[in-house]
Amino acid sequence: MLSEYDTAWHELNARLRTIEVGGGGLHGALTALKRHQQRTGFIKDALDDVERYTLYHPQDSSRFFRAQYNPKRALRFNGNGIAPAPVGFMVHNEGCFLCRDNIRWQQRGVQMGYEVRVGETGYYAWMNPFPLLPTHIVVATQAHASQEWGFELEAPDGAASFLVDLVALAAQMPGYVGFYNGVGAGASIPGHLHFHFCQRPQDDPEFPLERAGGAFEEPGEGAGILTRYPVAVAIWRGSPKQVVAAVSAWMARWRHRNRMRLDNLTGNFIVSMDGPGDRISLYFIPRDRGNAIGRGMQGLVGGLELLGEVVFSDPKDQELLENGAIDYFALEGYLARVHTPMFPS
Ligand SMILES: [Zn+2]
């Protein structure tokens, strides 16, 4: 006999599947999941308190960063009311927060996900209880598998890598940005493979990194290297297939040139389907493992920060944003602290 949780899960998943295949697409299903998770109280924040600031370079209005003041984000470190394991429930993988068998008791049956299959791999889409942008989803593998990737994009057995899945998901989610934060590069749960997807904010859909990389056009096999940005960025644009092929070939060379320092490196991928013509944009930012939290910073630097939107949750920082003490150059310096050169000098 199915438990109450499993019955509710299957009913919800059947309803969401009907929305997805009935023309709503993945976005339609995820929007319905979001509404469900707001009703059950799992999503703690409707982003009503969020203020966003666009900070322009004083001489060049094409250059900007964004700051987000999001006071509820400070609450996420309070454990989000994780329940202890009740009698009769097994703790799996040391209580990993992304294993479904743990989530059902940790969140007292309130958190539900949507089953998404990408190629050979099963994923669950979970809503983030403290979102950074309108619809903030964590897509995690159904199996407990490490977030480490060892800079390998072509598996020896020909199996698709996580990046193929990340790009395939992005291709189904226009209007979203997706990111993968490597271990030591902002990954909050390094033990379990996961991606973030966030819906673009309606008022400011373009992120500073995208503006900075806008003029670049993909020249085939190579990558575009962005120089006018505080961190080193490689960019690819094209169809999902073209992008995956180009980044895989490029990454093999990158890995070789960086072989002497590879153990110290990690990285972030950012992806979106931003059209026209079903075109994927993929960004890779190399990172130094020892420098996930930039010196003098309070938060982890992950995909959203690298897109140029830095999140603050301390009221003191809001004051500094209001009075202009945190400006374009402050955020440029903030990001520059995690700069890692693309190649060894
Ligand atoms: Zn897990």
Please give a quick description of this structure.
By secondary structure, this protein is α+β, with helices and mostly antiparallel strands. About 30% of the residues lie in helices and about 25% in strands.
Q: How would you portray this structure in words?
A:
This protein has 345 residues and is an alpha+beta fold. The chain has a single domain (51-75, 114-336), classed as ATP adenylyltransferase (HIT family, subunit A, 2-Layer Sandwich), CATH 3.30.428.70. Helices cover 28% and strands 23% of the residues. The protein contains eight helices and twelve strands. It has helices spanning 4-39, 100-106, 162-171, 208-212, 240-257, 303-306, 315-322, 328-336, and strands at residues 51-57, 60-69, 114-118, 121-127, 136-141, 176-181, 194-199, 224-226, 233-238, 265-273, 280-288, 309-312. The protein has a nine-stranded antiparallel sheet with strand order 3-4-5-7-6-10-11-9-8. The longest helix has 36 residues, at 4-39. It binds zinc ion.
